[in-house]
Amino acid sequence: ELNKVIPFDDNYSHLEGNSAAHIKASIIGSSVSVPVKNNNLLLGTWQGICFCEFDGPRRRKFYVKIM
Fold first, then answer.
1. What is the tens place of the pLDDT at every residue in 42-59?
2. What 8-state DSSP symbol labels residue 66?
């Protein structure tokens, strides 16, 4: 579990209170590119897209850009 490897309450040098969230976001990543064909996402059988909130809960907006 990610919270065991990167605990929220630890002695981080970054003192804003969200150091663990920054580290988790760096490991997981912040964007994904997925091909689309005939208005459908081309995901594999066991693939999916997840939104991970490491610095919340809070209201968020996310955007989808189709190129």
1. 999 999 998 889 888 889
2. -
State the DSSP code for 65.
-
Q: CA–CA separation, 60 vs 53, rounded Å? A: 9
| Domain coverage including residue 24 | 1-67
CATH of the domain at 41: 2.60.120.460
3-state secondary structure 1-63: CHHHHCCCCCCCCCCCCCHHHHHHHHHHCCCCCCCEECCEECCCCCCCCCCCCCCCCCCCCCC
The model scores a pTM over 0.70: no
* Count of domains forming the chain: 1
